[in-house]
Amino acid sequence: MLRPLLLHLSHTRWARHFVSRFHFARWAAARFVAGETIEAAIAAIRALNAKGLNASLDHLGENVTTAADAARATEDYLCALDQIAASGIRSNISLKLTQLGLEVDEALCRHNLRRILEKAQATQNFVRLDMESTAYTDQTIALFRALHREFDNLGLVLQAYLYRTEKDLITLVEEKARIRLCKGAYDEPPDKAFPHKAEVDANYLKLAQNLLDHAQALPPAADAGRQPPLAAIATHDEKIIAAAKTYAAAAARNIPREYFEFQMLYGIRRDLQEQLAAEGYPVRIYVPYGTEWYPYFMRRLAERPANMWFFLSQLLRG
To answer: What is the pLDDT, as a whole number, of residue 311?
Structure first.
């Protein structure tokens, strides 16, 4: 029952102002957010790399309302790509199109994304488009398709809780799109998304198997730390992870491990992250940073009861 409320509060201005005032909220958010500066994020990624984990760096921020804010976000990503190259860490970047001005002007957003892709290309890196709510799904996929024809260092996220995703996935894998498959973290109505967890899990596994069936359509990159394989299985669900491992290893498929990777969120199931890496599976951690941590933090609380209990335990401790 808490999930719809938390997702609603994630984009409510008064709640953001109220929660952000408290030091304990910033402290609790630090479990999921690798600091407010690029320097802090790079230090966190360097520690992950030392444990055999790759990363995808996300500069937090979304739904900007002015061209100036979109330009600042673009510059932040250009700087991040330079910093990744200079530091030598194994990380690519993830971004949201509403952060680059999708709601301001689609042409402006395309221009900003192109600048980032050109910088990523020059620094031999990769850009992943995060998927936002269904208000932006069509635009996100259309913009991805338009630029993927020109930039092969561009990937996309698809959300398994949407009814439409099976059709989208079938089309996109034929185009050799690099896909991160996640469950979905926004509050969507029952006419657009599976309303029950069991249904989402079943659809996720079906889509993951479809994605793995196409995993060998692209060879692994020489720099796998920055250039991901075609298939990214993004989940903390141990049952789904086990099923994906079994499916990939079956004699009829025998998909080599370097052709797909598991992805998880910073600060969640660190034990599982390290276990998979120790077993020889490529693992990439989604590492967010920045001052705009509130919406991301609230979505993490909504996703798993364990996250909410962690936050409440820190609140009760004062």
So the answer is: 57
